[in-house]
Design goal:
289 residues; single chain; four-stranded antiparallel sheet; globular
């Protein structure tokens, strides 16, 4: 373990290269410090007591530190992230169906299946995405049901039980999100087997990107974006998936400053989602005291 007791002051400051202070986490959390504690002006991750607590602890006790955890306040030891947006499935307020279909299709291509079986399974996933994009949730769920049925039919030969279970679990995550209405169905570029590369999630407006600075943030955070052609909505969701802040934006305002001192932004992890008519991008924001 790290240091657990010191008689004097704990002073850590003005070190722009210092980002890992986990060696003193036990000291701050449950140890003895005989003097004052003063931690500031270091690199992110070691810039304050609250940052050290955040980066070095495992709040949800799932075996993954907050810094690495894609859902720090809800236990998910498997770190499942079907739509590959960096936000764990158990706390993702919006499941991006196009990205999830691409990820699943890539997984299927890597399995020891005939080209015919791969094509059949991927076709059902793409059909589900197409029905979703049309606004036909029932038909999208039915296509995913057909996907599950085919996986079950091929369980044991050629799919292993583990492979079948994983594919069905992913499909059920999509079904639950569709039925809950917590999905974005913007279509990605057509999946091209056998290349299996992830396509860019954007429509005619090009690649939609968003950055947050600083992150973790204290009193305010700057949100910048590029690739936006038209109007969009910037939304902040809490860990339960509830929208707590929203602001219309457009291509003429490439940045916005969000005031985090409002009462709704208590310390924790939030999801920022920028949604246009043709694309959506999400980022995780950490608010520290």
């Amino acid at each position: 373990g790290g240091i657990t007791s010191i008689e004097g002051d704990l002073l850590i400051y003005n070190n722009a290269s210092l980002s890992d202070c986990c060696g003193i986490f036990d000291l701050l959390n449950s140890g003895y410090i005989g003097g004052v504690v003063d931690i500031y002006n270091n690199k992110t991750g070691c810039d304050s007591e609250s940052e050290i607590y955040y980066y070095c602890s495992d709040t949800d006790q799932d075996g993954i530190s907050n810094e690495e955890d894609n859902c720090p306040y809800i236990a998910n030891p498997g770190q499942e992230d079907l739509d590959t947006d960096g936000i764990g499935d158990v706390c993702d307020p919006v499941t991006e169906v196009g990205a999830a279909v691409t990820a699943l299709s890539t997984d299927i291509l890597a399995l020891n299946l005939t080209e015919g079986v791969k094509t059949s399974l991927i076709a059902k996933l793409e059909a589900a995405l197409a029905r979703c994009a049309e606004g036909n949730t029932v038909a999208a769920v039915n296509q995913l049901g057909a996907f599950i049925n085919e996986v079950e039919a091929r369980r044991g030969n050629p799919l292993t039980n583990e492979e079948a279970d994983e594919l069905i679990a992913h499909a059920n995550v999509l079904i639950e999100a569709l039925q809950a209405g917590t999905v974005d169905c913007s279509e990605e570029e057509s999946f091209q087997a056998p290349v299996g590369q992830f396509s860019v999630r954007a429509g005619l407006d090009g690649t939609l990107e968003m950055e947050l600075f600083p992150n973790p943030a204290y009193h305010e955070v700057s949100v910048t974006w590029s690739g936006l052609d038209g109007d969009a909505i910037l939304t902040i969701f809490n860990q339960t998936g509830c929208s707590i802040w929203q602001q219309p934006v457009n291509r003429d305002m490439p940045a916005i400053m969000v005031d985090l001192s409002a009462g709704v932004f208590t310390p924790g992890v939030y999801t920022l989602s920028l949604r246009s008519a043709k694309a959506v991008v999400s980022r995780r924001l950490v608010v520290v005291p």
